[in-house]
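Hello,

Our lab assistant flagged a job as stuck in the queue for most of the afternoon. It eventually completed. Since we weren't sure the result was trustworthy after the delay, we are filing this so someone can double-check. Below is the sequence as submitted and the structure that was eventually returned. Let us know if re-running is recommended.
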Amino acid sequence: MPALRENALTKVASKTGVSLNTTVKTSLFIVPTGKTFVATHVLVRNVSGPAPAADADFGIGAAANDFRASVQFDNLAATGDGVMVTPYDGGASTPVPGKVETYAAGDDFGIKVGTVVAVTVDVDVFGWLF
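-- returned structure --
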């Protein structure tokens, strides 16, 4: 599996039961020693209940918002729903391509909830290592 993570766009991490009821950053993937990581998208899925009022940031550092900030979970309206998060800003009147972020060895890619809701989700992180 490690070779595939360096030769294909693939799921690099999966975390179940991530709480959207805390504003503390939750670690999803730590870039391995000697590697650089390019994140392409994140799947937030299998919500335990409706969570359309929740929002979160994704990325590294304390704010965890360099990959994508202020993601609104409007489409997590029913148990089992899911959404795909990309760096693309689809909400702009003139769509803007998202900036590709690269992360160094040891960087801690995670989720930081802004507006909490008492539910859990499963989160998959996709990209590749080089």
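-- support follow-up --
The delay was a queue issue, not a problem with the job. The result is valid. Residues 2-7 form the longest helix (6 residues). The mean pLDDT is 91.
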